[in-house]
Amino acid sequence: MRSKGLTLTMIFQAESANYGESVGNVASLKKMSRGQGDQYTYISRQALRYNIVEQLGEALASVKAEGSGDKKVVQFSEEATIDKYPEIDFFGYLKTEKGTGGKKRSAKVRLSNAVSLESYKGDLDFLTNKGQADKIGENMNIAQAEIHRSYYRYTITGDLDQIGEDVVYGISLDNRERARRVKRLLDTIAFLYRDIRGRREDLKPLFAIGGVYDIKNPVFQNVVSIKNNCIDVSEIQGVLYDSIKEDTYCGVVNKSFDNTTELKDQLHALSMPEFFVIMKQKVDAYYEGN
């Protein structure tokens, strides 16, 4: 089977979608620092994986608890194999076994963190349970939570030739099933969301660029940025090598950005539904040709 990679870099808009440990009574967003100390919030790749698996519409891989006390570990069961569960076909597994090196499958679909494209300015939300406390005449409790609404960027990369193949168990799925799984993954990404603290945050892409290539590099991961509510087209054009240019497609939600016309003229941006239709056609074409 020819080696091919699917890679998509996407931008969505969301608010306060991944919290870390609280500091006192302040719920802290996950953040990283860049440059001269500017802070950027992020949604971890583990959180994105959780939401994708949850919304994939496929059976969840069976797990078991091994060990006891503080050494108890929850891991995939021996019966969890890729022919039954797309979850571990995509994201891999590690099954420890006493006295052996265990069984391991690396991820064939890899995610980056979704990092904010606008810096965090220290905004806080003031929270109380006044409504409940008033019912019984008690004093209310007070807490605070960091809040941040921003554009976020993340990249997903898949090894198309390795999806549906597992040398550990000697499993090889037919190409029709492989294509079905990858297209189901694309459908999930197109309408991805995240439930957090009573909110449902919409993670579906407002902008996306990528394709099916002979290389498996996350080509656009570091070159999709926003300035003054405009996608920086020149930065993207800087990595459009001749070897990938013809196979690259772009999608945008109309009027989401101030330079939608430029995106259509320079990158031939399609509507988002059209973009995902083409991506699924490219996946079909790959598997039908092998």
Unreliably modeled segments: none
Described by strand count, sense and barrel closure, the largest sheet is:
8 strands, antiparallel
What is the N-to-C order of secondary-structure elements (H for helix, E for strand)? EEEEHEEHEEEEEHEEEEHEEEEEHHEHH
Number of strands: 21
Oligomer: single chain
C-alpha Rg (nearest Å): 22 Å
Q: Give the DSSP E fraction (strand runs of 2 or more residues).
A: 25-35%
Helix percent reads: 25-40%
Compose a concise summary of this entry.
The protein has eight helices and 21 strands. The protein is of the alpha+beta class and 290 residues long. Helix 4 packs antiparallel against helix 8.
Describe this structure as you would to a colleague.
- This protein is an alpha+beta fold and about 290 residues long.
- It contains 8 helices and 21 strands.
- It has helices spanning about 45-55, 85-90, 130-135, 175-190, 235, 240-245, 260-265, 270-290; strands at about 5-15, 25, 30-35, 40-45, 65, 75, 95, 105, 110, 115, 125-130, 140-145, 150-160, 165, 170, 195, 200, 205-215, 225, 230, 250.
- Strands 1, 3, 4, 9, 10, 13, 18 and 21 form an 8-stranded antiparallel sheet that branches.
- Helix 4 (about 175-190) runs antiparallel to helix 8 (about 270-290).
